[in-house]
Every structure is written in structure tokens, then in C-alpha cells.
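Researcher: Re-running this chain for the archive, since the previous output was lost when a drive failed. Same request as before.
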Amino acid sequence: MSFFEVLAAVAVVVALIARQLRGEALTGRRLMLLPVVLTVIGTADLSRHGRHPASIDVVCLVAGALLAAGIGAAQGATIRLERRAGVLWARMPAVGLWLWALLVVTRVGMMAVAHVVDAKVAASSATILLMLGVNRLGQALVLVPRVMSSGMAFAPERDGRTFPEQVSQRFTPPPLDDEAPGRPYGAAPAAPYADGHQSDRLDLIRSRRQQRRARRFSDWR
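Model: Regenerated C-alpha cells:
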């Protein structure tokens, strides 16, 4: 890991701490995707420049990951959740700084232990992003159930939908041409309105689907 990559990792940590102390609207995308991105980048960075983790490296990495995830879970338990102007708000109390300090101490300690046992990959600075991602995963594993059990919804994303809504709508199949939106597959069709509004709506849905298919066909050609 280069000097600039270390600075980038430090900048990410400082930004996270500042945002948590100030408080922020809690969105599902930031809570769930950022840890995954950091973990994937950190894992890929371990094998760069021809490095191959040995068995002792794996042992040190697993031990460090368990510590990082445990501290992340404690951080998730201390985060204060409240509703502000109809939006879910999360803020870390000042005591959370001690958990961040503990994360830094344990990371430096594990790197020292890895150096003593000649685990060169685990002792390198390339593990910083990986352990930070695992730490954020530990926090998310505690915060997500807390949000769900509280009855509060995540703050909306830029398009106005929450992250769970974006995921569910992405994997929900579109309605059939002769099926009104929202009606389960195989259910009996709704009775038409006397003024013919339902048939007009179905005609509009069919027209939009045909236009989308025509655009996809033209793009393919």
C-alpha cells in the first residue's frame, strides 16, 4: 500500500468520525454498500504486487477481522437513532471516540504481532482498508436490525426512495401486458370501471412497454 493510499484510508476514517459525531441522515445505501466496497478493495489490495498470504497471514488476518468486527458491533450499539423532520437520524456520542481509538490500537497491535511471527502480508499497511471495511460491516450488522425493530425507515436516497425499496423494485418483474401494476400473478383481474378509466390505463401501460421494446431493439441493431 503506497503512502498516498495510507493517506486516503486515514482521510476516510477522519471523515467517518466527523460525520458520526455531527450526526447525519442514515441511508441504507451508505450503511450497507460502503462496508462491502471497502472490504472488496481491501481484499484485492492484499494480493497486489505479487503478495501471497501464507497460513500464518490468514490466522492473523482472521484474528484482526474478528476484533475489528466486534468493535464495529459495539459502535453500532452506541449509535443514537432518532427521527428528525421525518427522516432517520444517526449520531455517535462522544464515548464512541474511545471505540475508534480501540480500533486503531488493536490494528497496530495485530500488525506488530504479525511482524513478530513473520506474517508479512498481515503486517503490511495493505490490511487497513480491509479491516476498516470489516469494522463497518460489524456496525451494519447491529444497526440494520435496530432500525428494522424500531419501526423507523431509512432516509430516502437521491431519487426519493429508500435503499430497500430500490432493491425490491429492481428485482420485481414488470407487470404483464394484460395485468395491472400491483396485481399478483395469477390473481383474478379487477372489475373494469364504468367510465373505462382502467382500460385506458392498461392501454397506456401496453404502449409504454412497446416503446421500451422498440428502443431496446433499435439499440441492439
